[in-house]
Amino acid sequence: MCGTENFQNIALATTMWDTVDPKTGEQRERELKVNLEFWAQMVKEGATVFRHDRKEKSAKEIVMSLLPKKSVVLDIQAEMSSNDGVIGKTTAGSYVKKFLEDRQTDYAERIFDLRTQMAELQDLERNKAELTNAQLEREKEKMAEDVQLLMTKVDTLVKSARVQEPTKRHPKFMNKLLNMLTQIERK
């Protein structure tokens, strides 16, 4: 945002020295200064690192170090003035726009994937229901065939025994048999 040529005008401050032991604080500060993901590039180009201990003296020290520095126009300020104040036409705006477009693409892909998975699950459920219905229908047909076969066997037994009036000789057995056949037919 300010351009590398202005890094010497940057003051970087570490805080919370009163909450960590000095050795841990120094290690963290060193990591900030040497790691390119943090402050290394700015420190290399002239930024100054301060330790702010939440006291007025250290705050004044930071501010006083900046006062003699030459004022600068930030890159974003220069870009906005030359682009009619449109932040989207600045380098920073371009980065934000690209970031948002990438997130939008990622989310659109996630939504598409989730919708595809939902459709697949719905198809599986529908296929499962159809399969279950088909199985039930086959079982019903099988039971009907079994009932028909059983009735044919009973009929054959009755004829082979030459029983004229089976209900008079074995009424309980015949009633039970007829009840069972009726229940099977209903299923």
Give a description of the structure.
- The protein has helices spanning 22-34, 40-44, 56-66, 75-82, 91-160, 166-169, 171-186, and strands at 11-14, 48-51.
- By secondary structure, it is mainly alpha-helical.
- It has 2 domains: 4-72, no CATH class; 91-186.
- The chain has a two-stranded parallel ribbon.
- The model has no long low-confidence stretch (mean pLDDT 84).
Oligomer: single chain
Structural class: mainly alpha
Name the overall outline.
rod-shaped
Mean pLDDT: 84
**How many discrete structural domains?**
2
The low-confidence runs, each spanning 5 or more residues with pLDDT under 50, are: none
Q: Give the radius of gyration.
A: 44 Å
Strand content: under 5%
Number of helices: 7
The N- and C-terminal alpha carbons lie at a distance of 80 Å
Order of helices and strands: EHHEHHHHH
What composes the largest sheet?
Answer: 2 strands, parallel
- What percentage of residues falls in helices of 4 or more residues? 55-70%
**Biggest sheet: strands side by side, in what order?**
1-2
Quantity of strands, as a count: 2
Secondary structure: elements and pairs:
Blueprint: E1 11-14, H1 22-34, H2 40-44, E2 48-51, H3 56-66, H4 75-82, H5 91-160, H6 166-169, H7 171-186
Parallel strand pairs: 1-2
List keywords for this structure.
187 residues, mainly alpha, 2 domains, 68% helix, rod-shaped
Q: Would you kindly provide a brief summary of this structure?
A:
With 187 residues, the protein is mainly alpha-helical.
